[in-house]
Structures are given as structure tokens and as C-alpha cells.
Design brief:
The protein has 304 residues and is of the alpha+beta class. Helix content is 44%, strand content 23%. It comes from Enterobacillus tribolii.
């Protein structure tokens, strides 16, 4: 993929220098003329976090940058606002507010921030996730959706830690261990084969993301595609604290909201809903207001 690289001004250089100090060596290129960025580094004993604001930028690490950095940790990325694309190996996570993903600091990676994005990046030591030799390695650049119970708990732990910089060393270490314990079952790929239920859940989520714009997407269709019964699919999502139909609807609504924030004001509301799988506008409008508290047109005005 070819990226345009407009002139890098002093603001951009200052921002990438902050990134390199907080997170290790990265390369970066602006994607347009409207770059903006900020980095707030937060350290409390064992907790090393950064709040990163970024717009119209590609951030990446090659083998060279990895070799120049500490690779003894994972970047645990909590998406606070906006959208981001996080890529590593064969995996690609399209992040929405509330989502979490894991990136291995010891491997090349590529991040794209076309529109405004705000994230918390937590440096999670390898020992926290890889506690027992032979237990496997984490799957990186896998989107863990905001609705998952473990994701909600992990996000709450980290945001509360940011608000309480007076944590003692034992308390900061306990937060790291707790976050790792919450995320470990969702990201570990065991050498002797993943838990079949976890593997099927991941396949279902990936399938939903891939076909999110199709009006034929439904729980029954997903169940058929991954080879489980509809009842089995419901149980699979219930283990993660989710309802499959609600998950599909909320994922579509979040993407509709993203479109309303970034698309032309001349685009019809019904067109936005239809693009993300809502055939009936009145249903789309009601569902949108239930999730965001305002109608699609009012939401667009707020971001106009």
C-alpha cells in the first residue's frame, strides 16, 4: 500500500518524538494535511501507560525499529474514541470505542489513523501473559469487542488507574496482573489447540465484521457458516456476556455513527443506514436513538 507523505512540520516531529520516548521506536507518515496528535505519558511504578491522540497518520514498526526497542512487553490498546486500524502478521483489528487489542512489541506492526482517534496504550510485560512455558502465545491484532465482560472490566481497571496516580508499587503490579488475567483467556492461542468454544467465537466475530454490511447477516446465517447450531451460537456469545443479535446491531450502529461523523452532510440518512445493513429507515432511526440518545440527524448536527 502506497502512503502519501506530506511535509512533516515541527508539531509532527514533536509528536513522534513523544511516541518514541513513551512506547519505543516507531516510524510515522502523515496521511493528509490535517494531522493532529498528542501524547500524555503516565507512569505509576509498574504501570506504564500513554494516552495517545492522533489524526491522519500511519504509525508502524519494521524489523529495524523492533531491534532498537525493548521487546519484553505487549502493547495493550484500549480504544477510547474514534477509529483505528491495527495490523500485525495476518491479523487486522478495526477498532471502535471501547474495543481492546494486543500488539507484540517484538514483531513488526502497522497502525492507520485516518480520522481522529484516542487510545490508551498499556505496556504489559510478557511474564504477565506468558506465565507457563508451553501454554501458547497470544493472538495479536485481534479485536476484542467493547461489549465483552472481560473487556469492560479491564477498561475500568485502567481508566481508574489513570485517575489514581498515587497507587503503590504492589497496587500497580496487582493492576497489571488483573488486566492480564482478564484478557488471557481471550487472546491465548494454545499450542495443543485453542478451546473449541473460544475458537468458534473468534470465527463468529470475524465473520460478522467481514459481512457487517450484508442485509442477509443474521444469527442463523452466522451459525450455519461456522458449523454450530443456533442455540450453540447463543450460548457461545452468552459466555462472553453478549447477545448475538444485539452485538450485530450495535456493531452496525457504531459504524453508522462513524459514517455520520465523517461523511458529507448531503448524504441521506437512509443511505447511511442501508450501507451498514439497515433496510428499513424507521427501524434504523429507532435503534440509533436507543443506542446514542439522539436521532441520526441530530447526531450528525452535533459533529457537523
Amino acid at each position: 500500500m502506497t502512503m502519501s507523505v506530506p511535509h512533516r512540520d515541527a508539531r509532527f516531529e514533536e509528536w513522534i518524538n513523544k511516541i518514541n520516548r513513551a512506547c519505543g521506536r516507531f516510524c510515522a507518515a502523515t496521511l493528509g494535511d490535517h494531522f493532529s496528535g498528542d501524547v500524555q505519558e503516565c507512569r505509576t511504578h509498574a504501570l506504564r501507560m500513554s494516552v495517545v491522540d492522533i489524526r491522519q497518520t500511519r504509525l508502524y514498526r519494521t524489523v529495524r525499529e523492533v531491534a532498537q526497542s525493548d521487546d519484553g512487553h505487549y502493547f495493550t490498546v484500549f480504544q477510547l474514541g474514534g477509529q483505528a486500524v491495527m495490523e500485525q502478521g495476518n491479523h487486522r483489528a478495526v477498532m471502535q470505542p471501547g474495543d481492546v487489542t494486543l500488539i507484540d512489541a517484538a514483531r513488526p506492526s502497522n497502525f492507520i489513523f485516518s480520522t481522529g482517534s484516542r487510545q490508551i496504550s498499556l505496556l504489559l510485560p510478557r511474564r504477565c501473559l506468558e506465565q507457563t512455558p508451553g501454554n501458547g502465545t497470544p493472538v495479536c491484532a485481534l479485536r476484542l469487542p467493547a461489549e465483552m465482560s472481560v473487556v469492560k472490566l479491564g477498561r475500568q481497571l485502567i481508566t481508574e488507574s489513570l485517575r489514581n496516580p498515587g497507587l503503590s508499587r504492589p497496587e500497580s503490579e496487582a493492576v497489571l496482573e488483573a488486566v492480564a488475567s482478564l484478557l488471557r483467556p481471550a487472546v491465548m492461542n494454545h499450542c495443543d489447540g485453542e478451546n473449541l468454544h473460544d475458537r468458534a467465537f473468534r470465527r463468529a466475530v470475524e465473520l460478522i465484521d467481514k459481512h457487517i454490511q450484508a442485509d442477509t447477516l443474521s444469527p442463523a446465517w452466522v451459525a450455519g457458516e461456522i458449523g454450530v447450531s443456533l442455540r450453540g451460537l447463543y450460548r457461545m456469545f452468552a459466555r462472553q456476556g453478549l447477545v448475538v443479535a444485539q452485538y450485530i446491531r450495535n456493531r452496525r450502529l457504531d459504524l453508522c455513527a462513524q459514517s455520520l461523523r465523517t461523511s458529507s452532510g448531503r448524504q441521506k440518512m437512509s443511505t447511511v443506514g442501508y450501507a451498514w445493513g439497515f433496510i428499513d429507515y424507521s427501524h434504523f432511526s429507532r435503534a440509533f436513538k436507543t443506542r446514542f440518545g439522539v436521532s441520526p440527524s441530530e447526531y450528525r448536527k452535533q459533529y457537523g
